[in-house]
Specification:
The protein is mainly β. It is built from 1 helix and 11 strands.
Length: 159
């Protein structure tokens, strides 16, 4: 019995020593991603656009409940600019911008941003976010515009 207990202690000490020597195995490492937080009380549908190696891509819909966040892109961001469009599924409002891209009625991943209607899609205005080449970015959707007159969508590197 002493031998078994001693073996367990030595095994635990070995694991502890390895975790101190190799901290990159830690499961608490910071995650890099593009997240959208819905600060409203309504369900929101979100689409994202970005430039991939093969060209422009739009994807959606992510359904984000009120007062929750969702990760749209997991891992370090590969583009500097991302584009976002969102619709309030309950009250009919939207968060949009001046950059036209393609969306669809149901879940979608669309290559290209030209001739949306001719290709059977809808056209929507997306808001551009310059992430400054940060590895992570968060956009918060709110009910009210910011006090400085800016749009009701804000984007920041996560804290």
């Amino acid at each position: 019995m002493v031998l078994a207990g001693g073996m367990r202690i030595r095994s635990a000490l070995a694991v502890l020593a390895l975790s101190l020597c190799f901290p990159f195995f830690s499961t608490t490492a910071a995650l890099a991603d593009f997240r959208v937080c819905n600060a409203t009380q309504s369900l929101v549908g979100v689409g994202i656009g970005y430039r991939a190696k093969a060209g422009w891509v739009t994807e959606g819909w992510w359904h984000i409940e009120g007062s929750t966040c969702k990760t749209l892109i997991e891992g370090p961001l590969s583009s500097r600019f991302y584009y976002l469009y969102a619709e309030d599924a309950e009250r009919g409002g939207r968060w949009d911008g001046p950059i036209n891209m393609c969306v669809a009625e149901k879940e979608f991943k669309i290559a290209g941003v030209n001739d949306c209607v001719a290709r059977g899609f809808q056209r929507a205005g997306f808001q551009e976010y310059d992430t400054g080449e940060q590895a992570s970015w968060m956009v918060q959707l709110t009910d009210e515009p910011a006090t400085d007159g800016a749009a009701a969508v804000t984007g920041t590197p996560p804290q």
